[in-house]
Structures are given as C-alpha cells and as structure tokens.
Amino acid sequence: MAGRFSFLRSALKGTNPTAPFSRSHSTAAPQSAIARAASSNRTAVALSAVSVGTFAWYSALYGNPLLPEAKAESAADHGLHPPAYPWSHKGPFETFDHAAPTLIWNGFNSIRRGYQVYREVCSTCHSLDRIAWRNLVGVSHNVNEVKTMAEEIEYEDGPDAEGQMFQRPGKLSDYMPAPYANEEAARAGNAGALPPDLSLISKARHGGADYVYSLLTGYVDPPPGVEIREGLNYNPYFPGGAIGMARVLYDGLVEYDDGTPATTSQMAKDVVTFLSWASEPELDERKKMGLQATIILTSLLAMSIWVKKFKWGPLKARKLVYNPPATKH
Ligand code: HEC
C-alpha cells in the first residue's frame, strides 16, 4: 500500500522519488556521483587550474588580453568622430523636410535645395545611379518641373528601325545621368581617386548623415607635422586625413530659388538631407508603418489581456477543497 501511495504522490508532484536529483522531495534518495563531485573542493581546484591554464595558453598564442595592445595605427586612421546633428528626420516620429510640392506650389524644402546643390556642384564628379527622375516627383518638385529637367538631358536610346542608336530627351523613367562613362574615366579625371556613387552614401559610411556633413564642412589646414601629398587635401573626418576631393562648398556658391542664404553649412545640410532621402526614400513610409504596427499590436495585446482575465477569472477564483475520507480504526 505504501508503495502505491508514494507513486501517487510523486505523480502529483511530477517527480520520481527514486530519481537521482530529487533529494529535496525524497530524503531517502541516494546522493548522485555528479552532485557529490560538484560539491567537493577537488573539482573547484581542477576547474580553476583549467581556466588559468587556458588563459595562459591563449596569452602565449595571442598575447595577454588584459594588457593594452600596441597597434601600428593611430586614432587619425579612423577619422575624427562626427558630432550628432539634429537632423529634421532623425526621431522616430519625424519625417524628411519636404512639404509635398503640387502643380501650383513648388514646396520649397531642404530636399529640393539639396537636389539643387547636388545638380550644380556634386554631379560634376559624382553619379547618383539609383535615383530616377520620377522619384523626385511629389518629393522635391512637381511633375512638370521634373519633366522639364529630364528633357534638358540627352539620353541614348535605340536601336531604331534601321538598327541605329539615337539620342532623345530624357523621360521621367530615366535615371540620373552619370558624369563619367566608366570608372577609369572617373579616376583619370580625379587624379586617380574614384568619386563614389552617392545614391547610398549616407548609409554606406559610418556616421551616416553626420559624417557626410562633417566631411563637407570640415576642410581645414593640416596641423603642424602632418604632410599631405600633392593632389590630396586634409580633412580630419576622412579616415586617414588625406582625401582626394577638395573642398567644394563655399558661401554663396549656389543661388537658391527660395532665397535661402546659401552658406556653406546651409548647402551641406541641404545636400546631406537630399542624399539621406536618396539612400532611404522609404523612411517616412517605414516610420508610419512602424507606428501603425505599434498601435495595432499594443491594442491586440491589451485585448488579449482582457480576454485572458475574462477566461481565467472563474478558474482563478475557484476554491478546491479536499475532504479526506474519515479513517476507520
Ligand atoms: C571635383 C570633383 C568632386 C566634386 C565636385 C565633389 N566630389 Fe565628392 N569626391 C570626389 C572624389 C575624387 C572623391 C574620392 C576621394 C578619395 O577617395 O580620396 C570624393 C569622395 C566623396 C565622398 C566619400 C568620402 C568617403 O568617406 O569615402 C563623399 C561623401 C562626397 N565625395 C560627397 C560629395 C558631395 C556631397 C559633393 C557635392 C557637394 C561632392 N562630393 C562634390 C570628387 C568630387
């Protein structure tokens, strides 16, 4: 009888009284070999020896990880860390600075001014492969403006019925024209340095928009002792300090349509806003969807908590009473 009851008890508790690790439930169970070993000093000493030994082995192979390492590089090799600027599109609830232009109002905004800086300054050296004219519609310009801008540029098309390639004015579906035909031409025009495509630049560089802004506004004279090779320029934000691109932005370089004073920092801010948009045109939509998902999921969570409370209420409030049968003597 006693055996049957102990089986029942263990079934209720979900443990087997004869299992090695059930000492808390059944004092009668024998102490297992592992449990005994773990509690002995010998194991602690052996484990310490193993950890000291592996540490010594690692140090012999790779050097002591606790000592500062001597590196053949300086902080300047990584470039100066750019400060964090308060971009208008930075926060989770912020959008790009673009008031959607319409046919009757051309919505002056930072992306539009930034496009102007790209077109008038950067596009002489940098391509913008991933942006088509149509992408600008409703973002920085209205459709008629974009059509006019595209038509000013000749694109090669064809072949025609005679098998000849021909030139035609640009269309909304064309991509931004590149300044050079190929990489070799680009390098040849820039003393061997390749101006990178700017479509994804604000995502492709550590520091993103802050870095590109700091780079454009950060040209200074090299500090004493720093030698800059002929044809390179000193910029502390560029890893290594010597960059193939010279300072390109100077106060008053462009004339903004909306009359904004074109200072160096204003142009840098606008072109970086434009390039951030080019890297991530879906940013506004992404944040909007994120907010929608948060609202829907928190509402569903709140509802499921109420449903859970409703369903479990009767079970949680129920009291179970066990009256053992009176023992007969
Ligand atoms: C005269 C040609 C020229 C013009 C104009 C020019 N760049 Fe450059 N740019 C270069 C070259 C060349 C490099 C490559 C530098 C190197 O690798 O040393 C470069 C590199 C860059 C880089 C990459 C830096 C890095 O971390 O690799 C950025 C960003 C950049 N330019 C932005 C701009 C912007 C924005 C403008 C317009 C305001 C502009 N550039 C105008 C020639 C130019």
From TrEMBL:
Its EC number is 7.1.1.8. Heme c binds at C122, C125, H126, M245. It catalyses: a quinol + 2 Fe(III)-[cytochrome c](out) = a quinone + 2 Fe(II)-[cytochrome c](out) + 2 H(+)(out). One of its GO terms (cellular component) is mitochondrial inner membrane. Residues 109-261 form the Cytochrome c domain. Binds 1 heme c group covalently per subunit. GO terms for biological process: mitochondrial electron transport, ubiquinol to cytochrome c. One of its GO terms (molecular function) is metal ion binding. Its cofactor is heme c. This is quinol--cytochrome-c reductase. It comes from Sporidiobolus salmonicolor (Yeast-like fungus).
